[in-house]
């Protein structure tokens, strides 16, 4: 239950700040309207920073099914704990989407573009092509999981106690870099819960003039990150058998 509640609240915070910055940039008559991609990427980095710090001591702050499944695939997370992680993550992401809708309700009311309303909740491709979109999500999530594992390894972080304090900041910078460098093609979901949970919220909430929730695309930001997460973990495991440089 500690894992479930930790992942629920951590992922909820991730979505509140992550989807919140998108709402601030794309919806009409907000203070941050049209402030651009760099603001979105920075907001998502801060969302990860907050979500990870809030829950790191309780569940290890996966807040991402691709991370959980990747770690389970190399024996770091027991498979018996995976359901608690995943349920907490998806429920937390859904709740986060609902909270962002409530915070920006007036701005949803005055925004005409259906695509922008959907973009607050979930990702979509700049150029729709199933194979390339899937590959982009695989690459982005590979860099996330491989990067997290290598950057937070003991031989990188040094003295005990230093790692837990610095690790969430390193992860936030990693996500910032992914957004700036790899976010253009698909909006870098790199997290199945981050995309599917709010997408379901979009489908069930009374968003005015919302249009479709685009579930035809919605499997890509679920399957792609899971594949990328497993690849990142497996390659890290092979890489970690090499002795560090002296």
Structural notes for this entry:
The chain has 246 residues and is an all-alpha fold. Helices cover 72% and strands 0% of the residues. α1 runs parallel beside α4. The protein starts with a helix and ends in a 6-residue tail after the last helix. 49% of the residues are buried.
Set down the secondary structure blueprint.
Blueprint: H1 2-26, H2 37-59, H3 65-73, H4 82-103, H5 105-109, H6 114-121, H7 130-151, H8 154-157, H9 162-182, H10 192-204, H11 215-218, H12 220-240
Helix pairs in contact: 1-2, 1-4, 1-6, 2-9, 3-4, 3-12, 4-10, 7-9, 7-12, 10-12
Question: What's a concise summary of this model?
Answer:
By secondary structure, the protein is mainly alpha-helical.
Radius of gyration: 17 Å
**Which term fits the overall shape?**
globular
| Uncertain regions spanning at least 5 consecutive residues | none
- The count of strands amounts to 0
Percent strand:
under 5%
CA(first)-CA(last) distance: 42 Å
Biggest beta-sheet profile: none
Features:
246 residues, mainly alpha, Glycerol uptake facilitator protein, globular
């Amino acid at each position: 239950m500690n894992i479930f509640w930790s992942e629920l609240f951590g992922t909820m915070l991730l979505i509140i700040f992550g989807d919140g910055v998108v709402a601030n940039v794309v919806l009409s008559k907000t203070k941050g309207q049209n402030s651009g991609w760099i603001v979105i990427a920075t907001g998502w980095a801060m969302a990860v920073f907050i979500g990870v710090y809030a829950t790191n001591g309780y569940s290890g702050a996966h807040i991402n099914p691709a991370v959980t499944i990747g770690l389970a695939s190399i024996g770091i997370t027991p498979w018996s704990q995976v359901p608690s992680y995943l349920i907490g993550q998806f429920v937390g992401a859904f709740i986060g989407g609902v909270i962002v809708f409530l915070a920006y309700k007036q701005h949803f009311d005055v925004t005409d573009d259906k695509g922008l309303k959907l973009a607050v909740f979930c990702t979509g491709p700049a150029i729709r092509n199933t194979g390339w979109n899937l590959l982009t999500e695989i690459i982005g999530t590979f860099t996330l999981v491989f990067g997290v594992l290598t950057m937070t390894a003991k031989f990188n972080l040094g003295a005990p106690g230093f790692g837990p304090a610095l690790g969430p900041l390193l992860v936030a910078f990693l996500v910032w870099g992914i957004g700036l460098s790899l976010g253009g093609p698909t909006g870098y979901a790199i997290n199945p819960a981050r995309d599917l949970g709010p997408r379901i919220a979009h489908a069930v909430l009374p968003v005015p003039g919302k249009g479709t929730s685009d579930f035809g695309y919605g499997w890509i930001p679920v399957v792609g990150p899971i594949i990328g997460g497993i690849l990142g973990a497996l390659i890290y495991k092979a890489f970690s058998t090499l002795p560090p440089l002296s």
